[in-house]
Design a protein that fits this description.
The complex is a heterodimer of chains A (389) and B (366). With 389 residues, chain A is α/β, with parallel strands linked by helices. Chain A contains eleven helices and 13 strands. Chain A is globular. Chain B is of the alpha/beta class and 366 residues long. The longest helix of chain B is centred in the first third of the chain and has 15 residues, at 41-55. The chains are: A alpha/beta (389), B alpha/beta (366).
């Protein structure tokens, strides 16, 4: 269990606290320090300290946002089974600590790009539940106006560059965003996220080599959930030490189920990348669902393994224990919060269900920024055509 | 006659009305053949690979999730158990790498069957398909032939979005040195895949995810392990005299439905299942157009520079004086595939589009 120490700047109040002294849930920003459960393992660099600076407000907000992400993904599972979501749907439950820890360490000027398991990253970047569910159900208020679907969420105004369906492609793209940040002297970094399956892609090493040559502020984040679709990491990678695979590029292995470890690592990585170029973070994490809603997730791993991780390493349970041990809320208050979250998710779904599908004319919008009036056609080119503006 | 094509029977019995339907020659969605076998496209493909692996030890299977997972779409189910890890290889998610390795193995005389989980991912490996496989026999003046098959689902599925829905028939079929096949029925799947695996040249084998579960009647001849269909020959699925409709893969089913609707209005449509995109059976297509004088070409992929465009060019070049109407093209919409269900429907050819185009060609539209 994580140790915690009250910062010397706060009033010294010894535990256990009586109800009269308990901090109120919403506004307290008293600093606290949390120890990560596991040490970092470093490659070609000195690992950061295990003591993570946080605050009571941050700790509570971690709980709230992660619980929201969890509920959102579980609700998406039901919607998929009800056939309201079509095509592919890749769920992130179990991996929430990575999304939340990363956000806590960076600003909206820092960029994030990821693959298709993107719902929670989008939420973390400031997207709304309504936009998520509307997009998943192919409605016009979706974050991509219903035209992208589950794998193609974007939020440019928060520097979230998607949402990519082709394994590995997002990594060179992320290094390209980092290139632009350096080119424009923005003092910002890019987190290019990928999985253990994508870690073997050649384009990753090509982009990493260039990033190292040109000192780009690229941070490659391998979300190692140990399975590339149905293939366990040891069957796909000769060396599953993904944090070391950068060879000449430094790396850090992080307990990806510990939001504070993730936060510390991302903070460390940002400082490193701004000064020294690329770095790799390997987040040791786990997905409870299968690869996608088409994959039961139990033909290549045992149910015991899945429930074991849920029991021992669940990221939300960890935060919950910290909240309780710091007396920031009672069990009941957290349960009430979960009820509120459930309602928030249900309300967003109800609203999204009422949202209309896109207008047929949307078929032809956004093909180009500047179409020069060129003709585009429907399936029957003599019946349906449009001029692209 | 009616055994040319059919769909899965609703239930076992014959009724007087169903017998009447069969005798009338109408090929409706639910015709039943007493005593004939049916096979899904999935099982057809699986049995084809199985038989060719059994017949030739040089044939091996490679791709993502083809072994232990039993195949992402279960096409390679049971093969790892039957043939072992020396014949069935699970690869990492690295198309450029494993495709290159497959082509190299083919250079050295093996016969790889490389699976792309969808052909969208083949773009990561397209240099090897085109530059390392298609052109080698030519560049080496016949020393290095490449007996490889690249297979997997092609085109749109249901709601999978822009990056997972493209049809690659036109791209691959434009390259000399490649053979490009597109089965429709279970018989096509078996005969064409077996032919592809036996063929000494690189073959791009374009399947369709939505057809995998479809059942088709299959003849005893097609079930035989020596069964093979010729590469480069189209099949006339339905004879007609008023208008020629050419298409391939899933659109064959749509064209057949359109033909039934047209028949109700007195228009007799001839439906050609291309089966082979490259080599393209121009002879069969032109012979048909010379008979009907009208052409409607159908494909799922993007219209510009598509398979339909090539067919139209061929017909205009070779059978111009036989044409009584402008050539018609029905294709996917000229936009990236949208996710929303209503937009996706607008982006893909529907039966009514084919009917409308055929009627236009017959000068019968309102």
């Amino acid at each position: 269990m994580a140790l915690s120490r009250l910062s010397s700047r706060s009033n010294i109040i010894s535990r256990p606290l009586s109800a009269a002294f308990r901090r109120s849930i919403s506004t307290d920003t008293t600093p606290i320090t949390i120890e990560t459960s596991l040490p970092f393992t470093a490659h070609l660099c000195d690992p950061p300290s295990r003591s993570v600076e946080s605050s009571t407000q941050e700790l509570l907000s971690f709980f709230r946002t992660m619980a929201l992400m969890r509920r959102m993904e579980i609700a998406a599972d039901s919607l998929y089974k009800a056939k309201l979501i079509r095509g592919f749907c890749h769920l992130y439950d179990g991996q929430e600590a990575v999304a939340i820890g990363m956000e806590a360490a960076i600003t909206k000027k820092d960029a994030i790009i990821t693959a298709y398991r993107d719902h929670c990253i989008f939420l973390g970047r400031g997207g709304s539940l309504y936009e998520v569910f509307a997009e998943l159900m192919g409605r016009q208020d979706g974050c991509s106006r219903g035209k992208g679907g589950s794998m193609h969420f974007y939020k440019k105004d928060s520097s979230f560059y998607g949402g990519h369906g082709i394994v590995g492609a997002q990594v060179p793209l992320g290094c390209g965003i980092a290139f632009a940040q350096k080119y424009s002297k923005e003092e910002a970094v890019t987190f290019a996220m990928y999985g253990d399956g994508a870690a073997n892609q050649g384009q990753l090493f090509e982009a990493l080599n260039i990033s190292a040559l040109w000192d780009l502020p690229s941070i490659l984040v391998c979300e190692n959930n140990h399975y590339g679709m149905g293939t366990a990491e040891w069957r796909a990678a000769k060396s599953p030490s993904y944090y070391k695979r950068g060879d000449y590029v430094p790396g850090l292995k992080v307990d990806g189920m510990d939001a504070f470890a993730v936060k510390q690592a991302c903070k460390f990585a940002k400082e490193h990348a701004l000064k020294n170029g690329p770095i790799i973070l390997e987040m040791d994490t786990y997905r409870y669902h299968g690869h996608s809603m088409s994959d039961p997730g139990s033909t290549y791993r045992t149910r015991d393994e899945i429930s074991g991780v849920r029991q021992e390493r669940d990221p939300i349970e960890r935060i919950k224990k910290l909240v309780l041990s710091h007396d920031l809320a009672t069990e009941k208050e957290l349960k009430d919060m979960e009820k509120e979250i459930r309602k928030e998710v249900d309300d967003a779904i109800a609203k999204a269900k009422d949202c209309p599908m896109p207008e047929p004319s949307e078929l032809f919008t956004n093909v180009y920024v500047k179409g020069f009036g060129t003709e585009s056609f429907g399936a029957d080119r003599k019946e349906v055509k449009a001029a692209l503006p | 006659m009616w055994g040319i094509l059919g769909r899965r029977a609703v239930d076992g019995g014959f009724s007087a009305s169903s017998l009447r339907r069969m005798r009338s020659g109408l090929v409706s969605a639910r015709s039943y053949a007493a005593g004939s076998k049916e096979m899904t496209v999935r099982d057809a493909l699986n049995s084809a690979i199985d038989e060719e692996m059994s017949a030739d030890p040089k044939v091996f299977v490679m791709g993502e999730e083809v072994g232990q997972y039993q195949g992402a779409y279960k096409i390679t189910k049971g093969l790892l158990e039957k043939y072992g890890p020396e014949r069935v290889y699970d690869t990492p998610i690295t198309e450029a790498g494993f495709t290159g390795i497959g082509v190299g193995a083919a250079y050295a005389g093996l016969k790889p069957v490389v699976e792309f989980m969808t052909f969208n991912f083949s773009m990561q490996a397209i240099d090897h398909i085109i530059n390392s496989a298609a052109k080698s026999n030519y560049m080496s003046a016949g020393q290095i032939n490449v007996p490889i098959v690249f297979r997997g689902p092609n085109g749109a599925a249901a709601g999978v979005g822009a990056q997972h829905s493209q049809c690659y028939a036109a791209w691959y079929a434009s390259v000399p040195g490649l053979k490009v096949l597109a089965p429709y029925s279970a018989e096509d799947a078996r005969g064409l895949l077996k032919a592809a695996i036996r063929d000494p040249d690189p073959v791009v084998f374009l399947e369709n995810e939505l057809l995998y579960g479809e059942s088709f009647p299959i003849s005893e001849e097609a079930l035989d392990s020596s069964f093979c269909l010729p590469i480069g020959k189209a099949k006339i699925e339905r004879e007609g005299k008023d208008v020629t409709i050419t298409t391939f893969s899933k659109m064959v089913g749509f064209a057949l439905k359109a033909a039934e609707k047209l028949a109700e209005e007195g228009i007799s449509a001839e439906v050609i299942n291309l089966r082979s995109i490259r080599p393209l059976d121009r002879a069969t297509i032109n012979a048909s157009v010379r008979k009907t004088s009208r052409l409607v070409t159908v494909e799922e992929g993007f219209p510009q520079h598509g398979v339909c465009a090539e067919i139209c060019a061929s017909v205009v070049e070779e059978s111009f004086s036989y044409l009584d109407a402008p050539v018609e093209r029905i294709a996917g919409a000229d936009v990236p595939m949208p996710y929303a269900a209503n937009l996706e429907r607008l982006a893909l050819p529907q039966v009514e589009d084919i009917v409308r185009a055929a009627k236009r060609a017959c000068f019968r539209s309102k």
